[in-house]
Design a protein that fits this description.
Layout (H helix, E strand, L loop, with lengths): L1 H24 L5 H18 L5 H14 L4 H7 L2 H14 L1 H15 L3 E3 L3 E3 L8 H12 L7 H6 L10 H13 L1 H24 L4 H15 L15 H6 L3 H20 L3 H22 L11 H9 L11 H13 L1 H9 L1 H6 L4 H4 L15 H12 L2 H17 L3 H8 L2 H15 L15 H9 L4 H36 L3 H17 L7 H16 L1 E2 L2 E2 L18
Antiparallel strand pairs: 1-2, 3-4
Helix pairs in contact: 1-2, 4-10, 5-6, 5-10, 5-11, 5-14, 6-10, 7-10, 7-11, 9-10, 10-11, 13-14, 14-17, 16-17, 21-22, 22-23, 23-24, 25-26, 25-27
Length: about 575
């Protein structure tokens, strides 16, 4: 960073001054061009005067270690970006059959390169490649598009200087070690994609310089540019950097989808519009195979939050309606549970017995909604933890760990405190010893095979476990909603009775009758009202000095005898 600033800061500053001089001398409306210059000026200032606070950098590194560092599941998931995003991009431009063949050939060529302990095989040193292909890979490496990966960005190596002290150097080296399982697959992705894109362009008649540019476009548009200069300024602040941790990928994919949607409708030529349509269809098809219908993108934040908002006005208090549950049940009733799972969450989840859908799906690209049975303060707290980012979630994990230790659940407490690379094998060991149990120790009735346990140890959730938790959330969510509605109607009647409001009592009884007709297992009878009224009066009589106690616990009132309520 220091060397780059010394070599290029004056040059960049001069270029911006030339742009500004051109705008001052040109006639007409220069508003849009001035906006471009303003943005470039702010970005240059951000690069020359980095303001990342050490605490922010440390929190980013903690988030990386806790979530991705050393995790085999994260590294394996990272490998899917080439088939899910790069393949549709190259297929739309050069033909899907040619793109598939080129990516396959490049994948085999990867293993002929020189081995580097930090980045895996270096394809540019593969003697089997043509000299121009080696030169192309060296040019892209020099541009920072091969080794400057998302792992570098998340670990802080791409955004902070780490050579000014022995301690900083040690932290940087530790991040490289921990991030190896994530960095290595991404370098594989970038080298394979670059070589395949270069070869496709050359076969299409482009000269070497044009083919290198085609490969560069493939990398920045499908594997993205995670350099410090390309981070959105909104995500570069000390606070927003923590809140938007892991969201650079979401931002880039959102732009990719919306840009191609715009080009599909408003592209400059029929060829541009056709390529954009093919790209969108390719992304949708590949993500359907990996994550199913519920993993498809829709809108800015994904299909799941959008449909949840649209479904909020459907159903009523007496008969709650959840689009996800209805969709899954419709599929199960129509085509069976196996095929229904394949449609909802992708054939890959059914075939592999691993829940890939939750990792690669675009249905909740930006926001993952809290549990369905949360309400009131619990719901607000759940949304706050979701919106405040992973670091807030890790703070909540500390509370979970403390609770587990207090209740004697040592293994659960350790799981909550450990990073994913350690908590996953600990959890798999618990599954192997105890089976799948609830927090209170109840057997949840799911038998895991050896392959399931192996996947769990690597960090994947077994698909049958994911299915169980989804069904459990649907059942318990509906139960909680109906129970809340039942208690609400009973309390309305009791309040009306205490207020001597016969009209209110009649309305509450009419609503209760309607609710009971729809939900017989939660039926409210006249006897229910009378018992609730009696319980209310008993409770009221047993409240003294603001404290309710049952008769057998009356002796505890002595603990509050210090209160002066006169």
């Amino acid at each position: 960073h220091h060397i780059a600033r010394i070599n290029h800061a004056d040059e960049l500053t001069t270029l911006l001054e030339d742009m500004q001089a051109y705008i001052r001398g040109a006639g007409g409306d220069m508003t849009e061009r001035q906006q471009v210059v303003n943005e470039l000026t702010r970005r240059l200032d951000m690069l020359l005067k980095p303001t990342t606070h050490p605490v922010t950098a440390a929190l980013g590194q903690v988030g990386f270690v806790m979530s991705l560092g050393g995790s085999l599941a994260s590294g394996i998931t990272n490998l899917t970006q080439t088939p899910l995003v790069t393949f549709p991009f190259l297929g739309a431009r050069f033909g899907f059959d040619k793109a598939s063949a080129a990516l396959t050939k490049a994948s085999t060529d990867y293993f002929g390169g020189r081995w580097d302990k930090w980045s895996g095989f270096v394809m540019q040193d593969n003697p089997q490649l043509a000299p121009d292909e080696q030169d192309a890979l060296r040019e892209l490496e020099k541009a920072g598009l091969i080794n400057l990966t998302q792992a570098h960005d998340l670990a802080g190596a791409a955004n902070t200087d780490s050579t000014h002290s022995a301690r900083a150097f040690a932290i940087n080296r530790a991040m490289k070690i921990v991030g190896w399982t994530f960095h290595l697959p991404e370098v594989f992705n970038r080298q394979v994609s670059a070589l395949a894109a270069y070869r496709l362009a050359r076969n299409a008649g482009h000269d070497p310089a044009e083919a290198i540019e085609s490969a560069r476009q493939a990398l920045i548009r499908t594997h993205f540019d995670y350099s410090a200069s390309n981070r959105a300024r909104l995500m570069a602040g000390n606070v927003t950097r923590v809140l938007t941790m892991f969201k650079q990928y979401s931002q880039n994919v959102t732009y990719l989808l919306w840009r191609n949607a715009h080009q599909a409708l408003k592209g400059e030529t029929p060829a541009v519009r056709r390529e954009a349509r093919r790209m969108l269809l390719g992304v949708a098809s590949m993500h359907f195979a990996a994550a199913g219908a519920m993993g498809l993108p829709l809108g800015v934040f994904g299909v799941s939050p959008l449909l949840a908002i649209l479904a909020a006005g459907m159903g009523d208090d007496d008969e709650p309606w959840d689009w996800e549950t209805e969709f899954r049940n419709m599929l199960a009733d129509t085509v069976g549970t196996d095929l229904g799972e394949a449609i909802a969450h992708g054939p890959l989840r059914l075939i592999s017995n691993v829940d890939f859908a939750s990792r690669v799906g675009l249905g909740d690209l930006w926001i993952r909604a809290p549990q369905k049975d949360a309400e009131g303060r619990d719901l607000v707290e759940a949304w706050m933890l979701t919106l405040l980012g992973p670091v807030a979630g890790y703070a909540a994990n500390v509370g979970t760990a403390v609770k587990a230790f207090d209740e004697g659940k040592f293994s659960r407490g350790v799981e909550a405190l450990m990073p994913k690379m350690l908590s996953a094998p600990i959890k798999a060991l618990r599954y192997e010893r105890e089976g799948v149990r609830s927090w209170t120790g109840d057997d949840l009735g799911v038998e895991l095979s050896g392959a399931d346990l192996l996947g769990a140890a690597a960090g994947f959730q077994p698909s049958r476990l994911a299915e169980m938790y989804e069904a459990r959330a649907a059942v318990k969510g509906r139960e909680a909603q109906l129970q809340r509605r039942r208690e609400e109607l009973i309390n309305e009647w009791v309040s009306a009775q205490l207020s001597s409001d016969p009209e209110g009592m009649r309305e509450a009884m009419a609503d209760a009758w309607q609710f009971s007709r729809t939900n017989r297992e939660f039926a409210i009878t006249p006897d229910t009202f009378q018992k609730a009224m009696q319980a209310k009066r008993r409770a009221q009589q047993q409240i003294q000095q603001g404290v309710y106690l049952s008769r057998k616990h009356e002796g505890l009132r002595e603990e509050g005898r210090f209160a002066n309520l006169r």
